[in-house]
Fold:
Amino acid sequence: MAFVTRQFVRSMSSSSGAAASAKKILVKHVTVIGGGLMGAGIAQVIKTPMTSQKTFESLLDFSRALGKHPVACKDTPGFIVNRLLVPYLMEAVRLCERGEASKEDIDMAMKLGAGYPMGPFELLDYVGLDTTKFILDGWHEMDSKNPLFQPCPSLNKLVAEKKFGKKSGEGFYKYK
Structure:
């Protein structure tokens, strides 16, 4: 797990007229607490109904000042990336569970056919099967009727066996 604190003394401004007339927010300290893939890659500000426009625009400006490319999304489970990614990953697992293709063939098809750097099973092992299960279980609890959020037997089995992917040495593939 990484803990990083940096002091930034930057005045944020925005190109919009409404934000330009508002008092600027000065961001003095930023603390990032994260471990691994997600902690290193979060650049989302991906706004709740309680967030002021001034705060939101200041966060966008601050993200840009750090060299990030922020995207905006309403407060929804998974925001943009995980909301699209997790159902894709789970459909790959279900395709294999139904015996329609092997995990190796699914990974190869997505790498060669879609140009992805990793197939879905490789990515699941990289992200962590326990992490993926945690996300899926949370979404299923919120919306149990959504077919995209249904539990996945082979994922549940691997996690119960403590096979979490690369971090444990075995998941859908072995890494020792």
The mean pLDDT is 83.
